[in-house]
Amino acid sequence: MAYRSGCHTTFHHRYHHIWAPKYRYRVLIGEVRLRVREIIWQVCAEMGVTIINGALSKDYVHMFVEIPPHVSVSDFESRAKGRSSCKIEQ
Q1: 3-state secondary structure of 18
Q2: Is residue 3 part of a domain?
Q3: Per residue in 39-54, pLDDT tens?
């Protein structure tokens, strides 16, 4: 269990996130799967989020992440889910 520290804080914020496409359709296959993985990595890099463990199945995304204190959990979720759903359609 490793603690991380900032200028004035020491933290160990780890969250378990799972989300699925509507009606659990099995759409995360092939090129879509690779694109979703790439988009999530980009969002995590931009926000300073560390992916500890993650898995992409055909019908869900599973992530165990460490989020710094200056990033809210809901903001991370909305960016990751929103950007992956918008960019997939293009």
Answers
A1: strand
A2: no
A3: 999 999 999 999 999 9
